Amino acid sequence: MKKNIFFMMIGCILLFTSCLKSGLDDIENSDLCAISSLTMEYRWISQNANNYDQLSRQQMTLSKNTPDENNEIRFTVTVPTVSTSFPKEIRDHVSLDGLYMITVISSAAKIQPLNGAPKLGVPGEFEIGKDYQYEVIAANGNRSVYHIVIEDFIK
């Protein structure tokens, strides 16, 4: 019994130790505040083979998903064609209202919508030609504003 307790204690010690010995200050003081890429997707609830609800997603095709030198991303959204995982009944419901916008930003940075832009990661109401602004805030407080414009929606 004492032997089992000893091995459990050794296991807990190994489990709760960290291998990370350096680099934490680099992240905490990072001045990086960039959007590196952008995606949009449509989500819906479908039934799996066992009749349980499951979240289904279909990524939209974007003509461009990285910012230019002026921190601007202008792109066309194209709805993919019908497939076994993306049926016609679902595709017919896809519009700019209800798409999810997702961004990849710098490590340890935060992002927030400005001037009424839709929140990221939840269904948004988007319009063609409207300038959506998002501010990326680095860990050290540096800030950059990004402009996202949907130029067209092709279904």
Task: Describe the 3D structure.
- With 155 residues, this protein is mainly beta.
- The protein has one domain (26-154): Immunoglobulin-like, CATH 2.60.40.4120.
- 15% of the residues lie in helices and 42% in strands.
- The protein contains three helices and nine strands, in the order ααββββαβββββ.
- The chain has helices spanning 2-15, 24-28, 88-91, and strands at residues 35-47, 53-59, 61-62, 72-78, 97-105, 110-114, 123-125, 131-137, 143-154.
- It has a five-stranded mixed β-sheet, with no helix packed on it. The protein has a four-stranded antiparallel β-sheet with strand order 2-1-5-7, with no helix packed on it.
- Strand 8 and strand 9 (143-154) form a beta hairpin.
- The radius of gyration is 22 Å and the shape is flat.
- 14% of the residues are buried.
- The mean pLDDT is 89.
